Amino acid sequence: MSIFTLTDAFISVNGVTLSDHANSVTVEDNRDEVDITAFGATSKAITKGLGDATFTITFFQDFASGKTHATLQPLIGSTTPVTIEVRATSGARSATNPAAVMSGLLTTYNMLSGGIGEASTIEAKFRNGSQAGVTYPTA
Amino acid sequence: MGRYRAVSPLAEPFIGDFAKDEFEHDFASPAAEQDAVRGGLVEIVPRKYRVLSDNYQHPQGEEFEAAYLMEHEAALIAGGHIERVEPEPKPTKRSKKTADESTDQPTDAE
User: Fold this and answer.
1) Chain B contacts of A130, Cβ < 8 Å?
2) Cα(B10)–Cα(B22) distance, rounded to whole angstroms?
């Protein structure tokens, strides 16, 4: 895969495919910056600290059974992390279509958002819920 | 209430007797269940489910076995994705005999 336009991203939440109800996704895999600058230094020095991860997805709201609200709403009250998987395309995992997988907790769920005449879109934010952080399987 | 299998003698506080192997238990909270499962004390006994939605990882209508944590199962059932398939009750001797007799009866078509 070369440089590409994102048109067919794959999004799965708790084993449920919601790609056809999403139009934006951001995967963040971060490490804290820990300052280790000591006396006598002439430049700041940092090292990496704890890892953190966030998946932010914008969904079109749909209250039908099995769709956006029915899938996400139970997770906002849940304390058990669920598996979230994102891929650049809906094709199978491969070296050129790696997945980003995280066991995460839904921490933000905007059930209704938008203005008159607009498509009802909502933002869901999943935060890292396990020590594994984000993994990038290719198979 | 979920069905679990003890995999460590340390599970005795839940089941009273490690030798019981499989047991039903109602954990006080989802976190307590997660701790017991992830801590290697118990494992969840797989249960049969049927897929209701068209966007779950198994095809719609398919029956499959899975061992879900209680909140995973609750979320998927509430979302309309799956339903439990309860095991069919074993036929009693009486009902088996009745079934056999009805098989022996000639039908109108015959």
Assistant:
1) none
2) 14
Dihedral through CA A70, CA A75, CA A77, CA A80, nearest 10? Answer: 150
User: What average pLDDT does chain A have?
Assistant: 96
Residue B7's pLDDT band (boundaries 50, 70, 90)? confident
Q: How far is B32 from chain A (nearest CA, A)?
A: 11
Count the helix, strand and coil residues of chain A and give each as a percent rounded to the nearest 5: 10, 45, 45
Q: Which of A107, A105, A101, A25 lies closest to A60, judged by CA?
A: A25
The answer to whether the CB atoms of B78 and A14 lie below 8 A apart is no
The pLDDT tens digits for A25-50 are 999 999 999 999 999 999 999 999 99
The half-sphere exposure of A106 on its side-chain side, counting CA atoms within 13 A, is 24
Half-sphere exposure of A74 (CA within 13 A, CB side): 22
Containing B38, the helix (H) or strand (E) segment is: helix B30-38
Question: Three-class SS of residue B87?
Answer: coil
Q: Which two tokens stand for residue B29?
A: 């909270």
CA distance B19 to chain A (A): 29
Q: Find residue A33's DSSP bridge partners.
A: A48
Rounded-to-5 percentages of helix, strand, coil across chain B: 35, 25, 40
Global pTM value: 0.83
ipTM: 0.86
CA A75 to each of CA A12, A80, A106: distance values in angstroms, whole numbers, following the listed order? 14, 8, 6
